[in-house]
Specification:
Length: 106
Amino acid sequence: MDPFAPLGRFINDQAQQCTYSPADTPSADCGAPATWHILWNVDCEVSLACDQHMTVVRSRYVFVDSHRIGPDCAMPGALWDTAAKRCMYPDEPVGSTAAAELHTPT
């Protein structure tokens, strides 16, 4: 069995629905509310999964990272924060504060 998930076609995931589609056709799309965000590879290919399909993903495929769905997941311009296990916008106060702390002269 190939350990890499067949990513298939692009599915608009802004509605935060599970993008699992075993036949890679609209009629086969799961469409349940997503609970997981998956980072498949270092090229930043991502998808969303419900709990049931995240169990399938964990048992069959390799992936770089995953986290529970948050409000910024799958939104245009959001970045994957592997350390915090979430998606975020680069101008969020937490990110700005952390960046400022790194550049404060001592």
